[in-house]
Amino acid sequence: MRFILHLLGALLILLPLTKVDLYAQQATGSVIIQLHHRVGERELEPDSAYKNSFGEQLIISRFRYYISNIEISDTVTRNTYRVSNQYFLVDEKDSGSKVLSLQLPAGQYNKISFLLGVDSLKNVSGIQTGALDPLRDMFWTWKSGYVMAKLEGRSSASTLPHHIFEYHIGGFNGAYNVLGRVELPLPAAIDIIPGKKVQVAVSADINKWFAGLHRLSIAEHPACTVEGQLAKRFSENYLQMFTIQSVSP
Q: Model pTM?
């Protein structure tokens, strides 16, 4: 009897270890999301002049935004893989930040979606680290939360000193919640198999900030740095800036 009890105790100890080990050995493949920033048809480059849809000339000095709560799914089978507790701060000046590497279980997928910004829970969860570190200059206060997206530069159309424009878009609750999901159907389903890497190029067109759902010129709105109706309208615009450029192999 004592031998049986010892044997059962040993099995109870080993059981959770076996589960963890099996999970760790689950076959996975990779999806690499490469983000490309542009203004209209032109690639975004430092100190280069562009024109928005209003014909306003602009030079962009800073472009940053958060991506979180990524989901990759198959709309036919309704299988969805959720990338939990990963937050990406995409920064035009940091080429490495524009490459998002994800490990996925083997399967077929035909859609990518993500939250543009930082979800409400993390906004009120105290001091964070990594991409959410307040020292990243993307955080207002514990009451106002994170800046979800930031666009800064110069334009002759701006009436602000030195012709600057600046948009720091935030607000995570209430009527002026700027959080929204971006849905990107893939042109064809991708098969994820162990050891395989699939590259997905995603384009982000900054022109959509000014002429998406709403028409917002620099001349009329050279700045937006507080939560409210204008921030909400800018967010509804920039949620439309993403498109799938290509998928390979």
A: 0.87
